[in-house]
Amino acid sequence: MGWNRVALVGAGMIPFGELFEKSWEVMLEESYLECLNSVDKGIDPKEIQAAWIGTARPELHGQGAQGGVSLVGQLGLAGIPCTRVENGCPTGSDALRNAAFGVASGVYDVALVAGYEKMRDAPTSGLLGIAMQGHPLLTLGETAMTMFAPKANRYMHEYGLTKEQMAKVAVKNRKNGVLDPYAQFRSEITVEDVLKSPTVCEPLNILDCCPQTDGAACLIICRADLADKFTDKPVYIAGMGCGTDYYYQHEVESYTSYEATVKSAKEAYSMAGITPDQLDLAEVHDCFSITEIIDYEDLGFCDRGEASQLIEKGITEQDGELPVNVSGGLLCKGHPLGATGVAQCAELYWHLRQEAGERQVDIKHGYGLQHNVGGRSISNSVVIILSNHVT
Amino acid sequence: MGWNRVALVGAGMIPFGELFEKSWEVMLEESYLECLNSVDKGIDPKEIQAAWIGTARPELHGQGAQGGVSLVGQLGLAGIPCTRVENGCPTGSDALRNAAFGVASGVYDVALVAGYEKMRDAPTSGLLGIAMQGHPLLTLGETAMTMFAPKANRYMHEYGLTKEQMAKVAVKNRKNGVLDPYAQFRSEITVEDVLKSPTVCEPLNILDCCPQTDGAACLIICRADLADKFTDKPVYIAGMGCGTDYYYQHEVESYTSYEATVKSAKEAYSMAGITPDQLDLAEVHDCFSITEIIDYEDLGFCDRGEASQLIEKGITEQDGELPVNVSGGLLCKGHPLGATGVAQCAELYWHLRQEAGERQVDIKHGYGLQHNVGGRSISNSVVIILSNHVT
After folding, report:
1. CB neighbours of B364 closer than 8 A, spacing ≥ 6?
2. Binary contact (B107, A59; C-beta < 8 A)
3. Among all residues of chain B, which has the CA nearest to that of A259?
4. Residues A361, A383, B71, CA angle at the centre, nearest 5°?
5. What are the distances in angstroms from CA B148 to CA A296, B42, B86, B131?
């Protein structure tokens, strides 16, 4: 039923945070070594035949244009092919998607996927500088916040969502992050904390917003039929999807959903041959609290306008029916663009293998979903569904 | 024998040049429409299921971070998946390589590959600004010229290559460009012109260097077994390769070859199941005259130290035994990074289909080779071999 052509056999990550003491090279190296060491039956780096690296905008963060070669040279893998993928917020997940195509095409047996972003060294060109992505005139004054906040206002108007309900998303994810050693924030907050925190762009307060974060993560993937060489517990790519929406905000049809997510989710569910009720957990794109609310509906976790009920009823809590962002999510763990999607898949990998420690969720059906949405006008999305079994 | 999983069924390009009057959006649109119209039996844009776009550094050229979505939104294709590939000079060819993986993986039947670069609006951040690619300290003062010129000096020392012989590469390619309506320069030059032109970086004079160029090119690819829906004359991807070298100049082993090219050529020939003597033509990376000289040897067109003889004997002329850069090459046609590799494949497509007009070369074996090399320390390369028949 599912795609099952490619398996994940290793995952590594560094704790996300304000890593002024680590260069991007060091972040990459550390996450790569963690990843290599995570392979149950071991791996010789010489077995890695190709690599894909996701990094969204080192050029705008003052780190130059880092092409594919920067990764492999840095990791002692000079010689092998390496492609740099750049796709806004889904940069890391799209790097995995392209690597999976390379393996599924039959050309490579084993590949490395790496993602990193070093955002804190140049804070003003982080999410605030998102305007630099688009046309210099049309995007003047446009930041991540000014793209997402109007959606929150419209959603509140349409469906009666309250600021308290939005705040509960942040509260949930910060609570989850306490258990995640890779999260940038390790402390709980209350609804009152969120509501009293400074307004960034009405109706989003600062605790409704993800932080600026440095981080890196790696995965090793291989042909599904070769996975047992590396582990007895491979995790398979059951389905993948990528979708886009119109490029400028004034062209976008809906202010209460993200069409790019809807399209990528449809492709991924169809490829995996499953429905949302078969998911044991999801790592979704919560760059702002409103984003997670809208994600629930775009990803089919509930009907339109019902998302706040998932939060109110605790369904997406760590011990709920469908745990969402048990890693802490972007709001708590952080959002180093190129690393985010790769790290989300690493989190699913650990849960699906029952090795997520204190934050382990119940695995019943054996499926987990990863999701990113972003880019200009929030018009680009990737969804990847992983499974602990061949379906 | 060859890979033959993916076919090219359409190719379009705009004339390269100093296109101050065209935005990157307009360049893309024009090349896309040319490409659509080139499909023999026609194509409905709705048949395009996914896209890959190559653009190397719009961020450094002041155009913002253009992710995949910028392409599809601009071309009326909003909705479909789109990945942006960035890989230095091989950016365009690596976009085609990744699109081919997507199709060969079985996930997509028909895909669009687009490449563009708008370099003239910000001249100082073009090839002169290549230093911005790497570590701010280690690459201080490093430009394309200061990376390639030492190779020329070393090659001249080792093998007795003369400046006259290097100049003949530029003379050949400028002569070829006279016949190519897509070339930036349409006039011949002499060896004396090259030798008398100003020194840029010893031993390279300005006419040994490719210009700064704006341009865009597109290809439509599909599953090989579906090609006859679009054309009776498909061109197949017989083989592809990508290779890397060490990241910093001081780590690179040879100053008279590019290991990245050697590795990518080996992968591509092996996949295609051919040897260089089966090539009817090649479009190789001649960002500087010395580069084409070294390419001949790295790509196996001759033995080490023999490249100058190919030039002296006219073997790589348009009517020679192995015509190289009949399009005019980077030296004459121009080098808009993301567009270059896509445009080289379009040129091969036309020749292999016998429709290259006045510059048509003899097609005997039915194979053409595309090659790029670049990035930091000239450490990244892609080679793609196309064929007019399934092998």
Report:
1. B280
2. no
3. B79
4. 160
5. 53, 44, 21, 13
pLDDT > 60? residue A133: no
Rounded to whole angstroms, the Cα distance separating A298 from A271 reads 17
Of A83, A133, A267, the CB nearest to B85: A83
**Subunit contact A240:B56, Cβ cutoff 8 A:** no
Answer yes or no: do B101 and A107 touch at CB < 8 A.
yes
Contact A5 B105 (CB under 8 A): yes
Residue ranges of domains in chain A: 6-125+210-387
User: Is B64 within 8 Å of A136 when comparing Cβ atoms?
Assistant: yes
Question: What is the pLDDT averaged over residues A144-164?
Answer: 94
Residue A190: which residues within 8 A CB-CB, separation 6 or more?
A171
A141: confidence class by pLDDT, cuts 50, 70, 90 = low
Q: What is the mean pLDDT of chain A?
A: 92
In the block, residue with structure tokens 């999260």: A183
Please report residues of A whose CB lies closer than 8 A to that of B251.
73, 78
Distance from CA of A364 to the nearest CA of B (A): 28
CB atoms within 10 A of CB B162: 11
For residue A263 the two structure tokens come to 């399209």
| Contact criterion met (CB < 8 Å) for A81 and B267 | yes
Domain B6-125+210-387 listed as CATH 3.40.47.10: yes
Q: CB of A269 within 8 A of CB of A364?
A: no
CA-based nearest residue to B376, from B65, B118, B55, B86: B86
Helix axes B289-298, B163-177, angle to 10 degrees: 90
Band of the pLDDT at A128, cuts 50, 70, 90?
very low
Count A/B contacts: CB-CB distance under 8 Å.
Answer: 223
**Distance from CA of residue A192 to its chain's centroid?**
27
Q: Which of B77, B267, B380 sits opposite A67 (nearest CB)?
A: B380
**Residues from chain B contacting residue A132 (CB–CB below 8 Å):** 59, 64-65
Where does residue A199 fall: left (phi above 0), alpha (psi -120 to 50 degrees), or beta otherwise?
beta
- In sequence order, which residues have a C-beta less than 8 Å from that of residue B194 and are 6 or more positions away? B166, B167, B170, B171, B205, B207, B208, B289
Q: Quote the CA–CA distance of A241 and A270 in Å, as a whole number.
A: 9
- In angstroms, the separation between the Cα of residue B174 and the nearest Cα of chain A is 30
Winning range, highest mean pLDDT, from A59-68, B232-241, B369-378: B232-241
**What one-character DSSP code corresponds to residue A130?**
G
Give per-residue burial for A54-75: e unless 16+ CB within 10 Å, then b. bbbbbbbbebbbbbbbbbbbbb
Question: If we measure between CA atoms, which residue out of B272, B357, B278 comes closest to residue B3?
Answer: B272
Cα dihedral B227, B228, B230, B235 in deg (nearest 10):
50
Query: B361 pLDDT exceeds 60?
Result: yes
Tens of pLDDT, residue by residue over B87-130, are 999 999 999 999 999 999 999 999 999 999 998 876 444 444 54
Residues of A labelled as active-site residues: 89, 335
A79:B244 CB<8 A: yes
Looking at residue B138, what is its pLDDT?
A: 52
Q: Which sign, positive or negative, has the C-alpha torsion B153, B169, B144, A53?
A: negative
pTM given for the model: 0.96
HSE-CB of B370 using CA atoms within 13 angstroms: 33
Write the residue in A64, A73, A94 that is nearest to B244 by C-beta: A73
Q: What is the pLDDT of residue A135?
A: 53
Cross-strand pairs, B222: B7, B110
Residue A61 Cα, gap to closest chain B Cα (Å): 10
**C-alpha distances in Å from residue A41, one per residue of A9, A26, A110, A184, A359:** 10, 25, 15, 31, 25
Distance from CA of A98 to the nearest CA of B (A): 7
Q: How many residues does chain A have?
A: 391
Test mutation, B80, B91, B105, chain A, max A CBs within 10 A: B105
